Amino acid sequence: MTFEELGLLPELLKAVAEAGYTEPTPIQAQAIPVVLAGKDVMGGAQTGTGKTAGFVLPLLQRLARHASTSPSPARHPVRALILTPTRELAMQVHESVQTYGKHIPLRDLVVYGGVDIKPQTEALRKGVEIVVATPGRLLDHVQQKSVNFNSVEVLVLDEADRMLDMGFIPDIKRILAMLPKERQSLLFSATFSEEIKKLADSMLKAPVLIEVARRNAVTETVTHRMHLVDQDHKRQLLAHILKTSSLKQVLVFVGTKFGASRLAVYLEKQGIEATAIHGDKSQQQRSEALEAFKSGKARVLVATDVAARGLDIDDLPHVINFELPHVPEDYIHRIGRTGRAGKEGDATSLVCAEERGKLAEIEKLIKRPIEQVAVPGFEAGAAFSEPMEKGRRGRGGASRPERSEGGRNKPAAPRREPRDDHKREPREPRRIEPAKPKLPKLDFDPSKPYESRVSAQDTAAPEPKRSHHRPKRAVPALLGGLPKSEPDK
Ligand code: AMP
């Protein structure tokens, strides 16, 4: 399947080629024809699958039909609304809108909280067809009457499950109530809980279900490993790993905002360039931290799950779980940033005795055991021989035969396979026939350049730069060849 075969406009094909994409990802191949046909979509896909282009490209094509180069605000009503749970995700989706829409005269804008509202208000008053927004700030604009939804043709709810986690559903419902009933709606979510299904029922009409296999089911290129370590030695072990390996761009996950800052400061003290990103930081601080990480100025980005959600960092080979996530699904979200597009990546978890139950839940979810590797000098102590909390007993823990680093190339000690009742079959996606390449009539002359775009640069915080080219590179084995040394005391 090629992008041409999906029936995209030449202006979009050009933008896609300029972004360096040669073929559509599975979610794109499935979603583009359905969205072009004007149908509602319930999409099961997470970040890293190419889902953004999967909805942005056909959305642009549908809006292109009546795109106008007139300066009059009346000719640029809000026609598409894309809602995201976080500011970072809003910025990234907006960047995609700009990348793919650069040859089509549609105006776009990103609105999120934490920055001055005035430039956003001015841009809205001038008229924009595509608004990417976080719900809270969008409602602020509703309240001050700077936005009108009467002409909305397409609504996209991105990462609906995270919206739910973050308590945005009442805001979403308020926004939904203001939209025209006749519209196309697309909902994307990595997981489909009962609550998400209820939300989908309330906002989608005869949706086509499009699901791409969960990353854990398909990503064989990610190596999972863990080190059992005493809680008190985790920081030292992390510093040891970072100091004794040549790992670049390591995303380290922690459980709390406070823990994120503290750990970044500790690493800095150890001479490791690190920065932290979490919900309490201002938008500017978050953008700066992300930029420092992407540019390579900071080797390590310490993040909480919420802050890291949706971060689109190209070419990220290493994820370290300093703490295991509370919810096993978040393990999959975390590693969703590594091993993308068939490249190799690795996920290392530092597991203390109290986390054995969580480890068991994660192994059950990803349907594979995580290889345990001992780092000499950091082996876990007595806490691991204590019995686990009732109800949280899993396959992790001290009973597992530990392998020393010297023996890492030997076959793993036999491990029990996950039980059959854990092996849920992935739902069969409905078969989608490719759309016939019937191009819409355009109201503008695509051969003429146009300058009349209102962009986020005019109105909001600077966006992270991103390369769409994905150079292939060899990924060093995370702990391969680590010299033996003692923990820092
Ligand atoms: P997303 O899942 O939308 O966050 O996309 C993940 C990453 O895949 C982004 O960096 C995109 O630039 C990239 N991407 C999207 N579509 C393609 C494609 N067809 N080929 C290669 N990379 C892509």
Task: Provide a short characterization of the protein structure.
Helix content is 33%, strand content 13%.
Summarize the structure in words.
- With 489 residues, the protein is an alpha/beta fold.
- The chain folds into 2 domains: 4-211, P-loop containing nucleotide triphosphate hydrolases (Rossmann fold, 3-Layer(aba) Sandwich); 222-399, Rossmann fold (3-Layer(aba) Sandwich), CATH 3.40.50.300.
- 33% of the residues lie in helices and 13% in strands.
- It is built from 17 helices and 14 strands.
- It has helices at 10-18, 26-36, 51-64, 87-100, 118-126, 135-143, 160-165, 169-178, 194-203, 215-218, 234-244, 257-269, 283-295, 305-308, 328-335, 356-366, 456-459; strands at residues 41-44, 80-83, 108-111, 130-133, 154-157, 184-189, 208-211, 222-228, 250-253, 274-277, 300-303, 318-321, 345-351, 371-372.
- It has a 7-stranded parallel sheet with strand order 3-4-2-5-6-1-7, with helices on both faces.
- Helix 2 runs parallel beside helix 3, helix 3 crosses helix 4 (87-100) and helix 15 crosses helix 16.
- It is elongated and about 70 Å long.
- The N and C termini lie far apart (57 Å).
- Mean pLDDT is 78; it is low at 390-437 and 449-489.
- The structure holds adenosine monophosphate (AMP).
